[in-house]
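[step 3/7] fold_predict: job queued, chain A
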Amino acid sequence: MRFDDLPLGQRPAGRWSLTADWIVVDTEQGRRLLRGGEVVIENDRILFAGKRFDGEVSARFDMGAALVAPGFVDLDALSDLDTTLLAHDNWPSEKKGRVWPQAYVDRGPYEMYSPEELVAQKRFAFGQLLLNGITSAAPIASLFYREWGETVAEFSAAADAAQDMGLRVWLGPAYRAGGMVVDETGAMHARFDEDRGLQGLDDAVGFAQSVQGRDLVSPMLAPDRVETCTQTLLERTMSAAEDLDCPVRLHMAQGMMELQTVQSLHGKTAPQWLNSFEALSPRLLAPHATVADDTDLALYRDHGVSVIHCPLVAARHGGALRSFAKLRDMGINLAMGTDTAPPDMVLNMAVGMMACRMQDGHTSITSAEMFDAATLNGAKALRRDDIGVLRAGAKADIAVFDMADPHMAPRIDPVQTLILGATGRVTRATIVDGRLSMRNGDVAGIDMKAARAAMQDQFDGLVEKYPERTLGHPPVEQIFPPTFPLMNGD
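[step 4/7] structure written:
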């Protein structure tokens, strides 16, 4: 049987192996590159990773000019349709529908997608992750277009989708106790409903309990951005995470609006505010740290907080982690997130390296360190030692990258070539838990081309609703003008 004949979504029978020109192998002495090696898989585990396996296998598949590596761990993985793309050339946010106007709040916020559309979005997003060699993900979505928070029903469906498609996920519906509102003068104010936030936490805990013990789905608590939370909500969240033994993801130190809001409300930066009530913890995953000061970073280090680095989405809006090298040298665990569309971890690694070198010089970071951030460090943030690695006994979560892509020449060291000259589009196959989840652009359990068309229809429908939730209710053409004026007539 050829590799291209293997059924998607299934584990090949018996022991089977991949051979390739290059393999990233984790050994007791550290991570190594192996030329002409072999990876043997049995059920959900890697049985062997080395030069040549002497035992019997049911099938060997030669991937040829390829790099076989641990799958990426994405701890801020988009699970909806990315509305931040609308902000690329359109600002300020409070005039472009990214902050609710008082008039919209007064009329009553509502869900801008149907329950079926939300589930379809997650399936499509999971497919995009697999297309990019991402095998473990902690999904994230925007609440700007929601009535309030995410629901247990949609996340129960998301858990089923991940299990069906073959993606390892940490899931939890996002909840909040408040949000920002812009009044008719253009001034922004924080508005809170703590009881509603606490109910969201209770629902999230119930969901977490319902998915514990599933093989590809693990629980996560996901309070929304820090400026939408109260102290009580965060204290109870961290306590619940201890009981559930699960991670907590909280976006903070990520932008000036948040920084100014939290300082106005609490007289401190977000990390300093959390520290004041002992909410910093090794369980905490903290995207993005782009406005974190030295005191904030020291608190992260001292409490074992993992920073989730999302270089592409930050750079698109003029931001950057300051810097990868600085946080690394402080001893902070730096994991990676994509947080935008496309969820291209390869491109994120390239942008992350460039951003670090622009700040700290050419020798400040290596390809190895960036690759480790996208694999090993993500596993460490989740307190796992069996993902993000390629070694005997680890989970069979593997990405195969095409090193003969005609757009990517000349080829040098395969990891450096991947980061310097490729994008996630050179991902040839993605294997999760020993299952072939993606091969040559085909994803188990979904027709990505048909889903892409459906997602565009959904997104276009959302954009049409933007005037309702934009200050002054201007027409769409004014909120999001074209790059160049449209030509009239023929």
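[step 5/7] annotate
The chain has two domains: 1-70+388-446, 72-248+274-281+334-386.
The first strand starts at residue 16 and ends at 27.
exit 0
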